[in-house]
């Protein structure tokens, strides 16, 4: 059965656009995060971050499969409500390279609204499309985001692109890194280099700094991972000194804490069962908004409209309560910070720059804790959201040999100890943690018994003396070795890590010169729970599998364009107005008239920008505004609450009318714009009277 794929406002399919592009030699820099994905290029000596179809430089990593078989990716998928929450997929990066039996996956089963199923010991997402269940691998879903970035860049550059540099968490293991490469291959992107996110952020710091000699501490808190890294920069040379991390900790863990508390408050207050299916995405969006708001205000209201028909729910969250709820999570992050400093054998006074990277690093408590630990403030001139994609674009420029990158050299590290299991289950370390890469080292292994016919090599990574306490990465069997007394065979085991942080293990019988490889499937090799690089034929099959979802996009595009625009404008207006509501509740009573006026003008300007509505007159802070005849605070309150009312009516209408005709949607859009324009013009008139 053919299934249609509707993807935001643009076709992001594989070679489906009719636009004719010439081949470009640009290399993309892609920050593929847990919550957002972004893309940039380096040209003309500077970084350009490419905006999506909504003008935003970060695209949410959300996919929504509708009951009619449509699929929406990115910004609109994040905003849309009223659909089956089991068909809205997010945080897919947290599943890359993991097995079904992974403790993290098992714990995730209870916290995500969508279904996860076991397919060959890998977690797949399962969605319902036209009364049929379909499973997608994390690599396939990830490929959809990467294709979208590729298409955005090709439209921006008017040329086809095939190469990319992609960032990954420093603590991603081999399976996770390979999964990113496989997703890229499905998206028809050739990965020239994988670089760690903290190192990319440090490279971005150089763009904004005139200093030539720095020791940079990078704390990267993404949606699903945390990395703490120390990077030395001398002129154009970057050397990672130490990295520690946690691939199961991130901003989503903080959101889940608040979510659980909110549910408990709702049940305690109403005695009702919490409506997970109906309210899930509304709650998650509000929690994310509240978490960001608490970086600048002391408290905020989490408001869930129509949690049940005719019933709204609100709950006040203060900065102190949030800090208390997540106390152990903050402690876990600072423990990583301290561990990184210990591994680097450095002191706080040696750190010249502190970079907070990732959306969740903007939490006020993180800044306070880091300032206290290092006795200096983190840098504020670098965007936490964009530092990583900046660095990725710079690395892309280096590989393309762009002007302005000649003096930049990057040396990354492998963050953990690698070795194999020796007698007694002991860890025989071959490569120590924080070793610069690329790197290669060999070790001579032998038999433990007389006449032993084969040897099993089990590869682990971790810092514990016993392998049972470390991470098992894979094994392979060396067969047909010489039949000799124990200790007789001489087997050279070589560990090699390339610049992407990918491990290859080989073994050579020095007597027979027979060679085995952990990546040679013709030998007796068992990779960790069946994880191996996808073959070219498998990549081709998966590429074909997602293509039908793209090729039918145009059938409903015209209608969807209006829905996209209306939802984008309504929800963006909602967040602007909510921000002003928070400010009114927290600050306006003590604010000077000029501050309130600035908030009022900012509200007006941003609403006009997002709706493209021109007011009857242009007003700036220097305009001749008559403040004697009006109560400026009352004016701000009045227009904030008027806009909230208009927005809420239209949000409700959209939620109830997803199947409206094109004509009805156009009418509703024009009606909304008319109401907003009338409100803005009324405000203009009042200020200038």
Automatic annotation (TrEMBL):
Keywords: ATP-binding, Nucleotide-binding, Signal, Stress response. CDD domains: ASKHA_NBD_HSP70_HSPA1-like. The keyword Transmembrane does not apply. Gene3D superfamilies: 3.30.420.40, Actin, Chain A, domain 4, Substrate Binding Domain Of DNAk, Chain A, domain 1. InterPro entries: ATPase_NBD, Heat_shock_70_CS, HSP70_peptide-bd_sf, Hsp_70_fam. It comes from the Eukaryota. GO terms for molecular function: ATP binding; ATP-dependent protein folding chaperone. Residues 1-17 form the signal peptide. Pfam families: HSP70. Belongs to the heat shock protein 70 family. This is Heat shock 70kDa protein 5.
């Amino acid at each position: 059965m053919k299934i249609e794929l509707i993807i935001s406002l643009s076709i992001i399919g594989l070679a489906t656009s009719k636009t004719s592009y010439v081949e470009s030699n640009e290399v993309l820099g892609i920050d593929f995060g847990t919550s957002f994905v972004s893309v940039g290029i380096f040209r003309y000596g500077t970084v350009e971050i490419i905006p999506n179809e909504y003008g935003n430089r970060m695209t949410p990593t959300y996919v929504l499969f509708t009951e009619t078989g449509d699929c929406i990716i990115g910004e609109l998928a994040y905003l849309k409500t009223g659909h089956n929450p089991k068909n809205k997929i997010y945080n897919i990066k947290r599943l890359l390279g993991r097995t079904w039996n992974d403790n993290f996956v098992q714990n995730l089963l209870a916290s995500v609204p969508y279904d996860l199923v076991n397919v060959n010991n890998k977690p797949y997402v399962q969605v319902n499309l036209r009364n049929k269940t379909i499973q997608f691998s994390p690599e396939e879903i990830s490929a959809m985001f990467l294709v979208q970035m590729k298409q955005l860049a090709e439209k921006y550059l008017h040329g086809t692109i095939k190469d990319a540099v992609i960032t990954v968490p420093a603590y991603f293991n081999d399976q996770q890194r390979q999964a990113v490469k496989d997703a890229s291959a499905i998206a028809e992107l050739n990965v020239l280099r994988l670089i760690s996110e903290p190192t990319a952020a440090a490279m971005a710091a150089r763009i904004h700094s005139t200093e030539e000699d720095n020791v940079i501490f990078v704390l990267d808190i993404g949606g699903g991972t945390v990395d703490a890294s120390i990077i030395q920069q001398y002129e154009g040379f970057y050397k990672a000194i130490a990295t520690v991390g946690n691939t199961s900790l991130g901003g989503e863990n903080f959101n889940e804490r608040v979510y659980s508390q909110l549910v408990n408050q709702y049940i305690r207050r109403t005695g009702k069962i919490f409506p997970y299916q109906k309210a899930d995405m509304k709650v998650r969006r509000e929690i994310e908004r509240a978490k960001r708001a608490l970086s600048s205000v002391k408290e905020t209201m989490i408001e869930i409209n129509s949690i049940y028909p005719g019933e709204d729910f609100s709950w006040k969250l203060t900065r102190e309560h949030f800090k208390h709820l997540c106390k152990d999570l903050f402690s876990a992050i600072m423990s990583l910070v301290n561990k990184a400093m210990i591994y680097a054998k450095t002191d706080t006074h040696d750190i010249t720059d502190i970079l907070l990277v990732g959306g969740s690093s903007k939490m006020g408590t993180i800044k306070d804790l880091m300032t206290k630990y290092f006795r200096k403030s983190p840098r504020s001139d670098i965007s936490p959201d964009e530092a990583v994609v900046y660095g990725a674009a710079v690395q892309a420029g280096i590989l393309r040999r762009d002007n302005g990158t000649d003096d930049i050299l990057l040396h990354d590290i492998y963050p953990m100890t690698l070795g194999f299991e020796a007698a007694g289950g002991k860890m025989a370390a071959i490569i120590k943690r924080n070793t610069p890469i690329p790197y290669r080292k060999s070790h001579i292994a032998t038999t433990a018994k007389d006449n032993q016919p084969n040897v099993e090599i089990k590869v682990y990574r971790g810092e514990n003396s016993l392998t049972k306490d470390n991470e098992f990465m894979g094994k392979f069997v060396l067969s047909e070795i010489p039949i000799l007394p124990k200790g007789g065979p001489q087997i050279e085991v070589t560990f090699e890590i390339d610049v992407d942080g990918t491990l290859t293990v080989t073994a050579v019988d020095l007597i027979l010169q027979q060679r085995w490889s952990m990546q040679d499937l013709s030998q007796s090799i068992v990779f960790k729970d069946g994880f191996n690089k996808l073959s070219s034929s498998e990549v081709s099959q998966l590429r074909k599998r997602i293509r039908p979802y793209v090729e039918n996009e145009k059938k409903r595009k015209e209608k969807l364009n209006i829905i996209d625009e209306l939802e984008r404008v309504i929800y963006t207006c909602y967040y602007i107005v909510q921000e002003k509501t928070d400010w009114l509740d927290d600050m306006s009573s003590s604010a000077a008239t000029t501050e309130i006026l600035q908030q009022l003008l900012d509200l007006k300007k941003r609403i006009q920008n997002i709706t493209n509505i021109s007011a009857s007159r242009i007003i700036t802070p220097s305009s001749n505004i008559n403040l004697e005849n009006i109560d400026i605070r009352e004016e701000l309150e009045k227009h904030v609450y008027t806009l909230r009312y208009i927005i809420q009516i239209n949000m409700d209408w959209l939620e109830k009318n997803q199947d409206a005709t094109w004509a009805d949607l156009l009418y509703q859009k024009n009606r909304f714009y008319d109401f907003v324009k009338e409100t803005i013009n009324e405000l203009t008139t009042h200020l200038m009277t």
